[in-house]
Write a structure and sequence with these properties.
The protein is an all-alpha fold. It is about 95% helix and about 0% strand. It is built from four helices and no strands.
Length: about 180
């Protein structure tokens, strides 16, 4: 059915043993990850010593920062949209509550207690909705302010990173002109 040479069989056994040890021994997995991370750090440091490597690292950092900034902008947009929706719904509830209150008073002045009771119940429901919306708004507003502060911080960091990259690239170009 299967025919393996001794070398193939040995390779498969070593592979299965390695994968099994990664699964069974998390401490070995952490040590291996730290070792690989160290090699990666040395590689990145060596790469950063060349102008192209440094440009690539700056470009990668700018891309990462841009992605974080975009995520923060999207989150802020979503939160402000939800806050705006809550404000709009609150205004609608207040308007409907005012209308139910006027109708309840008009029904009472006519002596129609059944309609007045119905309008009073609807008024209370609208007031409860408005109270819930107000509570939601008060809970979400600090989160929106925090996301706005994070967005501004990321925007400043991104601008600083881009200016550092452009300074480095212009310095690199001037060195290249001197060499030639």
């Amino acid at each position: 059915m299967f025919s393996f040479t001794i070398a193939e069989f040995t390779f498969l056994c070593v592979g299965f043993a390695f994968v099994g040890s990664l699964i069974l021994f998390p401490s070995f997995r952490r040590q291996l990850k730290a070792l690989a991370g160290g090699f990666l750090q040395v590689f990145v440091q060596d790469t950063a010593k060349t102008p192209d490597g440094a440009r690539a690292i700056y470009a990668q950092k700018i891309d990462e920062m841009t992605e974080k900034y975009t995520d923060a902008c999207n989150t802020l947009r979503d939160l402000t949209g939800k806050l705006k929706t809550i404000q709009d719904n609150y205004a609608v509830c207040q308007k409907q509550a005012k209308g139910y209150d006027e109708r309840a008073k008009a029904a009472m002045s006519r002596g129609d207690e059944e309609s007045a009771t119905t309008y009073a119940r609807l008024l209370q429901e609208e007031l409860d909705k408005a109270e819930n919306l107000s509570a939601q708004f008060q809970k979400m507003k600090p989160a929106a302010e925090e996301v706005k502060a994070i967005k501004e911080k990321l925007e400043n960091q991104l601008a600083a990173l881009k200016s550092d990259a452009s300074v480095y690239q212009s310095t690199d170009i001037s060195f290249m002109r001197i060499e030639n």
